[in-house]
């Protein structure tokens, strides 16, 4: 089993819905993209047989992922703000394929958060209902 397939299956076992993305890209490799995301191990295994080098997309439905990209090759100044650091410190985080940070939160019951680009701060996006993020060992 390759690393991406192993990781995709582990995420699915944890309840995350995943789907394949084109190797080296963020673009979905399956027909309906994030709308086909699943935690069904058999479907995931079949996808990675068709796309063995695929990146892993994770649906962010029910989640809020704050995507903080580096700015000018260095850290994003938004995280220099003490209050913003405290707000993000309480959640899990991962390093994005391009060297930024993804801060992961579960949406509150009844919330319907959507995707944004640059509304919180420059180079800070959110992914929520209808969106997705790439996770390790994905490469772009």
What can you see in these coordinates?
This protein is 21% helix and 28% strand. The chain has three helices and eight strands. The strands form two sheets. The chain has a five-stranded antiparallel beta sheet with strand order 4-5-3-7-6, with no helix packed on it. A three-stranded antiparallel beta sheet has the order 1-2-8. Helix 1 (3-13) runs antiparallel to helix 2 (41-50). The longest helix is centred in the N-terminal third of the chain and has 11 residues, at 3-13. The two termini are 21 Å apart.
Task: Give the key terms.
140 residues; alpha+beta; five-stranded antiparallel beta sheet; three-stranded antiparallel beta sheet; 8 strands; 28% strand; globular
Brief rundown of the structure:
By secondary structure, this protein is α+β, with helices and mostly antiparallel strands. It is 21% helix and 28% strand.
SSE blueprint:
Layout: H1 3-13, E1 18-21, H2 41-50, E2 55-59, E3 63-68, H3 82-89, E4 92-95, E5 101-106, E6 116-121, E7 124-127, E8 132-135
Antiparallel strand pairs: 1-2, 2-8, 3-5, 3-7, 4-5, 6-7
Rg, Cα atoms, Å: 15 Å
Largest sheet composition = 5 strands, antiparallel
Q: Could you estimate the helical fraction of the residues in percent?
A: 10-25%
The side-by-side strand order for the widest beta sheet comes to 4-5-3-7-6
- What is the distance, rounded to the nearest whole angstrom, between the alpha carbons of the first and last residues? 21 Å
**Would you identify the regions where 5 or more consecutive residues have pLDDT less than 50?**
none
Number of strands: 8
Shape: globular
What is the helix/strand order?
Answer: HEHEEHEEEEE
- Please give the count of helices: 3
């Amino acid at each position: 089993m390759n690393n991406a397939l192993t990781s995709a299956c582990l995420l699915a076992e944890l309840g995350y819905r995943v789907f394949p993305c084109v190797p080296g890209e963020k673009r979905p490799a399956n027909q309906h993209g994030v709308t086909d995301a699943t935690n069904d191990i058999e479907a995931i295994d079949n996808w990675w047989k068709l796309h063995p080098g695929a990146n892993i997309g994770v649906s962010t439905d029910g989640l809020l992922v704050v995507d903080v990209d580096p700015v000018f090759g260095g850290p994003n100044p938004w995280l220099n703000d003490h209050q913003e650091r405290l707000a993000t410190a309480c959640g899990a985080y991962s390093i994005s394929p391009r060297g930024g940070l993804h801060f992961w939160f579960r949406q509150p019951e009844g919330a319907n958060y959507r995707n944004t680009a640059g509304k919180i701060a420059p180079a800070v996006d959110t992914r929520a209902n209808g969106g997705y993020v790439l996770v390790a060992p994905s490469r772009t």
